[in-house]
Every structure is written in structure tokens, then in C-alpha cells.
Write a structure and sequence with these properties.
heterodimer; A: about 375 residues; alpha+beta; 6-stranded mixed sheet; 5-stranded antiparallel sheet; 20 strands; B: about 550 residues; mainly alpha; two-stranded parallel ribbon; two-stranded antiparallel ribbon; 23 helices
């Protein structure tokens, strides 16, 4: 079936007095890989289940291809959902699980056999057709669940944290598989996860959710590199958040003094919604990987250089994670590919250097008049 | 730290095995042997040949099987819809459903039989009304109809509770996934829900089936005696302890029970696949017309289930209730009789059942401890023997006890065990042991070894660890198991009527049986029945409290 466009209009859902989702409006285009990203309890799964039809919203309308489906029961929506725990029926074999939806659609016996075979091949599980789900590994169960949903060629594919029950290595593998599969099939996909790496790696667009609402929507790069507000900055990737005020604006750069009294220069990039004026209060974020850690006597010129003392140092092969004290607070710095660079230990005096382009202004408040 | 074999655990196990050997394996083994050997002491199937040649016995076997199947069939018609409604819908009045699932269990079937006679019997309330209005009557209580009716009302909760547990364990997403694939309504039930709840349903049905076949009280009270249990009882009590046919019937009973129990356990093991994945079960709000139908069905089921209770209470206050719709004269005299003039039935019951329940808790905890915490090789055997009483009908155990302990002085008592009330305590202890083993086992499994190890690593010795960590954590399970043992022993009839040495040593169930033999004693018997219901009701209520509202946990295998 042709992939569908999904539109949510002002969706709200409450349990008792508590709104778990409120005022969500968005539009997902055909063939997109769209992700709801947020911490547990942010309403992302509720939203997904609203699209599937398992949750009736208290407010708002769900459209599939422009047609309102809010009152259409799940079994008539033709959106395929892969559940977090896979929800494979234990009393049926792998073949029967995958064939279930086709039987519901009254497909002919030969057609079912053919399609199930193809679907299982697609997820690399040809040989397991006669086994029971309980005889499969977690990764295999996951793929059966995917095949079971894809075989009915749904208009929309919904994935509820499908990788969260797999171990780290398998998760990384499945992530790539999923990516290839979705791009090959071109199926409109909505994905729910709390794992920001997963979201960044897979999505064409991401909606970051917090307490029932979308706080930022955009392409992965936009979300990561230009987070709007401290929540997104902190939730997506690692961050060093600062608050401060602008002391000087000089063309494309602003000088800022943080609450701790740290001075730094921020580049005013073209993506900023509005340039801050002198005296404006701002929130800043510096990604740990943007900070280089050098000896205090290193003379390489850098516009931002902060002295500090190492609190903790964790060598992890491909990177070193530092926690460094500076002006009474701790700053995280990740040195990527540390080979050949000096390694510091707890108590060492160091200098942190970073470019103005890496000091991101994520929120601006006008100066108090 | 743990070496292969701990001598303390080892000796505990051998002591338990010896005890269970003497009081379970040996008596049952003797029954088997009598049935399978000839007078020269050689193995033979001759007696079974004779059994199957006798039309009377063939009919008894057929009747037993038929009544079991019919009870399961009719019970399912009540139990399955109720279980489904309870597991899947949220509505006002749901409390009635929980009441319904336990009410029938608090009235012993043989008490219910008498009460139903008064209401549905040939000259009972309903038929008298029918005679008056339509000049017709319906033989509800005649022959096997009556037995099946009483047993259906009593045993359907076993099916309901086990089915409900299976249903509650079906994770919501399994049904949602089917809906997502386009499946709903009746098809959803048939393709997903039904197969997933089947293990619990089959297990519950098999349990009900065993209970029906073992039930001695109902057929005796309704005077329909051509059933296996009743035949075994009659052979042994009227013809005598040496009548081989009685033993053969016992073996047939054991085989049927074992087969059913084995089946039930197999299905319960399969049932575990539904519980591997945990999640909230689906609950849908029910309102409007649907709710009205549901409430009507529950109300009807509740009303019919309550008939025995109503009947027995009325009868217990009746001075004269004969050929009239309601008693003509009411009195409190029946209660005076059983509480003050002849108080020993109640006193004996409390004495026997409390001792038996206490012993069961101790034995059950010790056995469960060895099963869960030790790596001893004999523990599977221990488990098997401790579970065996579930498959040993009361009649069979009693026959075995009489065979083994009759006619020689038991050391320490100075007379045969069968002429002391202690034999009743032992019988109850043996019959209910599986319950306390189960309860303790389940409780102990919840206590991860690491909890004990943590205490030990912090300096508590073995004894202190058990006393301060393990016992408090399993106390709920122990108490619950003991309560179940108490409650079910209170109404144990089959082994009681065969083992009571003298009338003044009889407990309530025996008293009811004796009183019910004469029309004049019926009301006093009913008053005793009410006392039994109260005891069982209180015990069941407490069990539920201990299990924190998980109604019915107590009555699953």
C-alpha cells in the first residue's frame, strides 16, 4: 500500500486531571522517518498509541492522508505497529505470527506462503519459520515482529522503542538494518525512543518531547547543533550549560560573562533567531567534545581559554572523558582520539580551549529595561 | 561457601522422607498392593478384570466420569464468561464478581446438597410452588442431576479462578498487536485470547474434574450412590476392610486423579509462556446496555450460587420444615443444641484442624526450604511425595490408614492409631500438606538468596539470617498456606466419616453427616453447617487479606 502522510492537530490526552500529552500539532510526510524523542513519561508512547488507535485522544484530530481517523478503530487503520516487547504470540510459530495479518486480510494460501517467505528473507530469518517465538533470541524476535508488521504493507510503520530490549552491540547492528530497510521500502515511519543517538542516526526529523509537548522539531543536525533551550541541549547529547549575560557585542561575536564569572566569546551564528543585545541574559551550551584539554603552558592561541583542575579522568580508548573544575563548577570535556595527546590525571592543572563557534547561545532574554 | 552436601539439610530431608513415607507412601502402597495381588501374594490383574466385568462397577465408573464431564461443562458455561468479564472490563458492581468467585467455596458441597434439597428437592420450596401454581414439578435433585447440580455450583469457581489468572497474564500488547493487524471482536478472542487462556482453563477444569470424582459427601447426602467414591466407601464400611473390590475402586480413583493432576500440571507449565512477558492487562470500561446484560448475568449466577447458603441458614432456624414452602415454626434451639448441649463437634473441629494446620505449616516450610535452597539429590522425590496427596482421594487415604494402622498398638499411644482422634489430625495434615508446601515454596522463591547472603556478609549467622530476613519475608505465604489448610480441613468429609473412631470424637463434618441421617436432626445439622460456613468464610477472608486482595490465589493448584 502507498505510504501515508500523517497529521496530528492539537492532540491532547489526559488521565484524570493529568495531561500526558497536550497541544501536539505536527505533520509527517510520506516516506519520512520521524522520531519522538524524550525521557520516560514525556508522552511519546501515548502519542504513538494515539496514531495506532489504542489511545483515544481527549482533544484534537489524527489525519492519515488528510482523512480524519480519530474515531476509526485500530483494526481498520492499516498502520503497522512494532511493540516494545515485540508482542509475538507465544502459541503461534514464527510463520503463523507473520501470516496472521495476511490471514486477517483473507489472502490466498499460496500468496500467504509466498509473502511470509519473502518477509522472513527480508529480515534474514528464513530458517526459523517453524519455531516458536520463545525459541528465538531477542534480536530474532525483534526481526520477526518487524516482518510481521511489514508483511501487511501498512500505510505507516510505528515503532515503539523497538531496540530497547537488545544489548548494546546488537542494538547498533539493528539500527543500521532498520535504517536500510526503511530507506529501501520508503515507508512512512514513526519511531519512539529515549535514546538520542538512535534518534540522530535514524531520523529524517526529530520531535523532542518534554512533559507532553514538543519542545523542538527539526532535522537531527539542527537538533544537535542548534538546540533550542537547555532541555534539548541537555537531553540530546552531552552538554555544559551556562547562564550569563552579554557584556559586549562586536559584529559577529559576543562577549559573555557567566554567573560563575567565567568570560568567554561566542560566535553569533546565522542560525540564531535573534542577535542578543548588550546586557541580554543568555543560556549557553558547550558540547564536551568541542573542548580541547591542554597543558597550562600550551601557547596555541585560542579565543577561549579557561584554566582548570582535573577532578576525574576516564580513559575509554576512543576518547578520554574529563571532569574539570573551573571557577567553582565542573565542566565536562571529551578528548576524542587521544592517541599522541597528553593524558591528564586527577589533580593536574590544565587549560581548556574552545572556539567561539562552539559556544552556542541556546536562549536569549532581552535585558531588563 | 556452599559445599556439595550439608549434613543438616541431609538429615532434615531423610527425616521428612521417612515421615511422608510412613503416612503417605506406605498406606497408599498397601491399597495398591491389596488390589494388585492375589491371596498367595502374587501380582495379578484379576481383581481389575472382575471389576470391569461387574455391571454395577462399570456403571459407577461411567457415572463418575460423566458427572465429572458434566460439571466441567456446565461449570465452564458459568465460569468462562465471568472470568472474561472480570479480566477485561471495568464497571460498577464488579465487586459482586469477586464475591461470586469465593461464595460457593465457603459452603462444603455436602452441606450445600442438603440445603438445595430443601429448596429444589422433590418437596422443596420451588417444587411446592410449582405444584401449587402449575400442578407440575421438576426433578432438579433426583439422581445424578442433583449431584451434578450441587457440584457445578460448588466447583465452577475453580475453573473461573484459573481461567481468570490465565487471562490476567495475557499481556495487553498481544491483543493490541492482533488488533493492529486488523483482528477484533470474536475473531480476536478465537485467534489470540482463547488459545492464550486455554492453559489456565484446562488446568482449572481438570482440578474441578478431580474434585468431582473424589467428592463423597454429595452423593451420600443425595443418596445417589452408584459413583466410584461412594462405592469404595460402601464396600469398605459395609462389607469390610478385607473386601478387595473396595481397594480396586480406590486404585481406579487414584489413577483418574493422577492422570487429571498430571494433565493439569502440564498445562500449568505451558501456562507459563503467557507470563514471560509482563504488562498491564487490558481493562475496558463497560457501560450502558452491555453493562446491564453483564450485571444481569452476574446477578443470576450469584443468585443461584447463593441458594445453598440461603437454604442452610433458613433450615438452621427451622423447628419444623417439612412439605412446606418455608418452615412453619422457627427456633434458636438448633444452635443451643450444637453449641451447648453437644458442643464437642465444634470443639473437635477446632482442635484437629488447628493442630493439622500448624503441622502443615511446619512441614510445608521445611519441605519448601529444602526444595528451594538445597541442592540435595532427593529433593525431587520429596516434592513428588509431598504433592501426591492432591491426587489421593480422601476415601483412598482413609482406606489405606485403616488397612495399615488398624489392629496394632501404635508406640507411644498404647492403642491402635485408628481408635484415637490423632488419626484424624494425621489424615488432615497429609491431605492439606501440598497447600502449605506450595504456599511456602512460592513465598520462598520470592526471597532471593542474595537477601540472605547480604545479611550473612554483614555478620548475621545462619540462624539469625533466617529469623530476621527469611521468616519475615515468607511469613505471609506461611500464614496463607496454614489458613487454607485450616479452612479445607474444617469441611473434610470423605476421610472423616471413615476414620472417626467414636461419635464423640467426630468433628463438624461428621456431626452434619450424622444429624442429616434423620429428618429430625436436619435442622441441627444445618446449624452445624452454618458454623462450618462461618469458619470457612472467616478463614477465606483472612487468606485474602494475607494475599492482599489477590482473590482466589489460594484455590489454584
Amino acid at each position: 500500500m502507498k505510504p501515508a502522510q500523517v497529521k496530528l492537530e492539537n492532540i491532547g490526552k489526559r488521565y484524570g486531571e493529568q495531561w500526558v500529552v497536550r497541544g501536539v500539532t505536527l505533520q509527517i510526510e510520506r516516506g519520512e522517518f520521524y522520531t519522538f524523542l524524550g525521557p520516560s513519561g514525556c508522552g511519546k508512547t501515548t502519542l504513538l498509541r494515539t496514531i495506532a488507535g489504542f489511545v483515544a485522544p481527549d482533544e484534537g484530530v489524527v489525519y492519515l492522508d488528510g482523512e480524519p481517523v480519530t474515531d476509526v478503530p485500530p483494526w481498520k487503520r492499516d498502520v503497522g505497529m512494532v511493540f516494545q516487547n515485540y508482542a509475538l504470540w507465544p502459541h503461534l510459530t514464527v510463520f503463523e505470527n507473520v501470516a496472521f495479518g495476511l490471514r486477517e486480510r483473507r489472502a490466498a494460501r499460496e500468496e500467504i506462503a509466498e509473502k511470509v517467505k519473502l518477509a522472513l528473507e527480508q529480515v534474514d530469518l528464513k530458517t526459523t519459520a517453524d519455531r516458536r517465538p520463545s525459541q528465538l533470541s531477542g534480536g530474532q524476535q525483534q526481526r520477526v515482529a518487524l516482518a510481521r508488521t511489514l508483511v501487511i504493507q501498512p500505510r505507516v510503520l510505528l515503532l515503539d522503542e523497538p531496540l530497547s530490549n537488545l544489548d548494546a552491540k546488537l542494538r547498533a547492528e539493528m539500527r543500521l538494518e532498520l535504517l536500510k530497510l526503511q530507506r529501501d521500502l520508503g515507508i512512512t515511519t514513526i519511531y519512539v525512543t529515549h535514546d538520542q543517538e538512535e534518534a540522530l542516526a535514524l531520523s529524517t526529523r526529530i520531535a523532542v518531547m518534554d512533559r507532553g509537548s514538543i519542545v523542538q522539531e527539526g532535522a537531527p543536525r539542527e537538533i544537535y547543533e542548534q538546540p533550542r533551550g537547555p532541555f534539548v541541549a541537555a537531553f540530546v547529547g552531552k552538554s555544559n550549560l551556562f547562564e550569563g549575560s552579554v557584556t559586549r557585542v562586536d559584529g559577529r561575536a559576543a562577549e559573555i560573562e557567566t554567573l560563575e564569572g567565567i568570560r568567554m566569546t561566542a560566535a553569533l551564528g546565522p542560525l540564531l533567531p535573534s542577535s542578543p543585545a548588550r546586557g541580554a541574559r543568555v543560556a549557553l551550551n558547550i558540547r564536551p567534545e568541542a573542548i580541547a584539554v591542554v597543558r597550562p603552558d600550551d601557547a596555541t592561541p585560542f579565543s577561549n581559554r579557561l584554566p582548570g583542575k582535573v577532578l576525574a579522568s576516564a580513559y575509554q580508548g576512543s576518547l578520554v572523558e574529563y571532569e574539570i573544575e573551573c571557577s567553582g563548577r565542573s565542566i565536562k570535556a571529551n578528548v576524542i582520539n587521544p592517541k599522541g595527546k597528553p593524558l591528564f590525571h586527577r589533580g593536574d592543572e590544565v587549560a581548556m580551549v574552545f572556539a567561539p563557534e562552539d559556544v552556542l547561545i541556546i536562549k536569549t532574554e532581552s535585558p531588563i529595561a | 561457601m556452599r559445599r556439595g552436601v550439608d549434613w543438616r539439610q541431609g538429615s532434615l530431608m531423610w527425616a521428612l522422607l521417612a515421615l511422608l513415607g510412613i503416612f503417605i507412601l506406605y498406606p497408599v502402597g498397601r491399597v495398591l498392593w491389596v488390589a494388585l495381588s492375589d491371596d498367595q501374594g502374587r501380582l495379578t490383574l484379576l481383581h481389575f478384570g472382575n471389576f470391569f466385568r461387574r455391571p454395577l462397577f462399570r456403571e459407577a465408573l461411567w457415572n463418575s466420569l460423566l458427572s465429572g464431564v458434566l460439571v466441567v461443562l456446565f461449570g465452564s458455561l458459568i465460569a468462562v464468561p465471568l472470568a472474561y468479564i472480570g479480566a477485561r472490563y471495568e464497571f460498577r458492581g464488579k465487586i459482586a464478581l469477586q464475591t461470586l468467585s469465593t461464595l460457593p467455596l465457603v459452603i462444603p458441597p455436602f452441606v450445600g446438597a442438603v440445603a438445595l434439597q430443601m429448596i429444589l428437592g422433590r418437596s422443596g420450596m420451588v417444587n411446592l410452588l410449582l405444584m401449587r401454581w402449575f400442578d407440575a414439578s421438576i426433578p432438579f435433585m433426583e439422581g445424578m442431576t442433583g449431584v451434578v447440580l450441587v457440584q457445578t455450583l460448588h466447583f465452577f469457581p475453580f475453573i473461573m479462578l484459573n481461567t481468570a489468572v490465565s487471562l490476567a497474564n495475557i499481556e495487553a500488547s498481544l491483543e493490541e498487536a492482533a488488533e493492529n493487524m486488523g483482528c477484533h471482536g470474536w475473531r480476536l478472542f478465537r485467534r489470540v485470547t482463547l488459545p492464550l487462556m486455554l492453559p489456565g482453563y484446562i488446568a482449572g477444569s481438570l482440578i474441578a474434574f478431580i474434585r468431582v470424582i473424589d467428592d463423597l459427601g454429595t452423593p451420600l447426602m443425595l443418596n445417589f450412590k452408584n459413583l466410584l467414591a461412594a462405592q469404595a466407601y460402601l464396600r469398605i464400611t459395609t462389607i469390610g476392610i478385607d473386601d478387595v473390590d473396595g481397594y480396586v475402586i480406590c486404585v481406579v480413583l487414584v489413577v483418574l486423579s493422577l492422570a487429571s493432576l498430571f494433565g493439569a500440571r502440564k498445562y500449568l507449565a505451558v501456562a507459563e509462556y503467557a507470563t514471560v512477558q509482563r504488562g498491564a492487562p487490558v481493562s475496558r470500561r463497560l457501560s450502558g446496555k452491555k453493562r446491564a446484560w453483564v450485571l444481569l448475568f452476574i446477578g443470576l449466577a450469584l443468585g443461584v450460587s447463593l441458594l445453598p447458603h440461603i437454604g442452610i441458614v433458613i433450615l438452621s432456624f427451622a423447628k419444623i420444615w417439612s412439605f412446606s414452602i418455608l418452615p412453619t415454626v422457627y427456633t434458636l434451639d438448633n444452635y443451643v443444641e450444637i453449641l451447648f448441649r453437644v458442643p464437642h463437634f465444634v470443639k473437635n473441629t477446632l482442635l484437629y484442624t488447628l493442630i493439622a494446620a500448624g503441622l502443615d505449616v511446619l512441614l510445608g516450610a521445611a519441605i519448601a526450604f529444602l526444595l528451594v535452597r538445597s541442592r540435595l539429590r532427593g529433593r525431587n522425590l520429596l516434592d513428588a511425595i509431598a504433592t501426591l496427596p492432591l491426587a489421593i482421594p480422601g476415601v483412598v487415604l482413609a482406606v489405606g490408614f485403616i488397612r495399615v494402622f488398624h489392629g496394632w498398638d501404635f508406640p507411644g499411644i498404647g492403642r491402635p492409631l485408628t481408635s484415637s482422634w490423632i488419626i484424624l489430625v494425621i489424615a488432615y495434615t497429609v491431605r492439606r500438606l501440598p497447600y502449605t508446601v506450595r504456599a511456602s515454596y512460592a513465598a520462598l522463591q520470592q526471597v532471593h538468596v542474595s537477601l540472605e547472603e547480604a545479611a550473612q556478609s554483614l555478620g548475621a549467622n545462619r540462624f539469625k539470617t533466617y529469623w530476621k530476613v527469611t521468616v519475615p519475608l515468607i511469613a505471609g505465604g506461611l500464614v496463607a498456606g496454614g489458613l487454607i489448610a485450616f479452612v479445607t480441613s474444617c469441611v473434610e468429609l470423605a476421610s472423616t466419616i471413615m476414620l472417626v473412631p467414636r461419635i464423640e470424637l467426630g468433628p463438624i463434618s461428621y456431626g452434619i453427616y450424622i444429624y442429616m441421617q434423620s429428618p429430625l436432626g436436619r435442622s441441627a445439622g444445618a446449624a452445624l453447617g452454618v458454623v462450618a460456613i462461618v469458619l470457612v468464610g472467616v478463614g477465606t477472608y483472612l487468606t485474602h487479606r494475607v494475599f492482599a486482595g489477590r482473590a482466589g490465589t489460594a484455590f489454584r493448584v
